[in-house]
């Protein structure tokens, strides 16, 4: 049995300013986006499309706005509308956590559409380019959720599970005498960090190292994340849950199903068209 370490959500105080670990995870995510992007630009089939480091810097600004605005609006509208409408000041207090991946995903797509229009690039090529740089940023966000003791897992069926964890009830002060939720629980943010984030990154990065049909990389990311999220939702206490024909399905699973179905359709469409971008004799040889 483990006990959640309950670290201080504030990493450091800079005078009157409190720097939260959750915010630092976003800084880490954006830094990894730039670092991985610099590596990806050097790949022959990507270099053939004329991507530059300056494009990364410009896209990052748009992407940051899309992640933050879309992620927060998604949390408000998809998961806890009653709470936020009753406490509207909480909407802007993003340092407390509470960012929806699905909302952030939609926000980034809108941001990339705006950037692609400005830069004169095809949105599908933009999505293919950035998709492999996204999962590790997501993993960093889930680590931030763990530090904040957010997204508690379901109660384990086998209390002898070595990593089963006592999880603090964040509706009470965490110190000096924290109150814990009932039962040993799955550390679901760590599951999602490892599976939805790191595992999806490894698979997608390897897949994207070679030329693929236009939109195949973006669609593959959508499919991988949708399937991974659908699976890890079984270990997370749902924000809300419904029953379809006697089968319970969580809010996260309901939002992931359109991603899975849409991604399969787009992958089939992509390979049928088989328009491979950035392929030259040199990249074929590579």
Descriptive overview:
The structure is a single chain. The protein is mainly α and 286 residues long. The chain has a domain at 18-211. The protein is 57% helix and 7% strand. The chain contains eleven helices and six strands. A two-stranded parallel ribbon has the order 1-4. α6 crosses α9 and α9 (216-232) packs antiparallel against α10 (251-273). It is globular. Mean pLDDT is 89; it is low at 280-286.
Give the N-to-C terminal Cα separation.
Answer: 49 Å
Please give the largest β-sheet: 2 strands, parallel
Instruction: List segments where confidence is low: pLDDT < 50 over at least 5 consecutive residues.
Output: 280-286
* Major sheet strand order: 1-4
**Shape annotation:** globular
Rg estimate, integer Å:
20 Å
H-E string:
EEEHHHHHHHEHHEEHH
Integer average pLDDT: 89
Strand residue content: 5-15%
Q: Could you tell me the number of beta strands?
A: 6
Helix fraction bin: 55-70%
Structural class: mainly alpha
Q: Oligomeric form of this entry? A: single chain
Number of helices: 11
């Amino acid at each position: 049995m483990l006990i959640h370490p309950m670290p201080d959500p504030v990493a450091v105080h800079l005078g009157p300013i409190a720097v939260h670990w959750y915010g630092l995870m976003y800084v880490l995510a954006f830094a990894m986006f730039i670092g991985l992007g610099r590596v990806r630009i050097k790949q022959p089939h990507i270099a053939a499309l004329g991507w530059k480091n300056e494009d990364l810097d410009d896209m990052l600004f748009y992407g940051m706005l899309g992640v933050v605005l879309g992620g927060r609006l998604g949390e408000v509208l998809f998961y806890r509308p009653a709470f936020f409408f009753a406490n509207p000041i909480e909407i802007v207090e993003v340092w407390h956590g509470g960012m929806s991946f699905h909302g952030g995903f939609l926000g980034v797509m809108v941001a990339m559409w705006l950037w692609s229009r400005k830069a004169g690039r095809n949105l599908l090529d933009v999505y293919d380019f950035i998709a492999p740089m996204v999962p590790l940023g997501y993993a960093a966000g889930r680590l931030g959720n763990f530090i904040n003791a957010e997204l508690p897992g379901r109660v384990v069926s086998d209390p002898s599970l070595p990593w089963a964890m006592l999880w603090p009830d964040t509706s009470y002060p965490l110190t000096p005498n924290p109150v814990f939720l009932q039962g040993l629980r799955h550390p679901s943010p760590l599951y999602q960090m490892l599976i939805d984030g790191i595992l999806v990154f490894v698979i997608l990065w390897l897949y994207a190292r070679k030329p693929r049909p236009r939109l195949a990389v973006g669609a593959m990311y959508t499919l991988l994340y949708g399937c991974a999220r659908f699976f890890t939702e079984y270990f997370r206490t749902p924000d809300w849950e419904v029953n379809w024909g006697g089968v319970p399905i969580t809010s996260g699973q309901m939002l992931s199903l359109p991603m899975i179905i849409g991604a399969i359709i787009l992958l089939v469409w992509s390979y049928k068209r088989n328009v491979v971008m950035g392929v030259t004799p040199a990249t074929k040889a590579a």
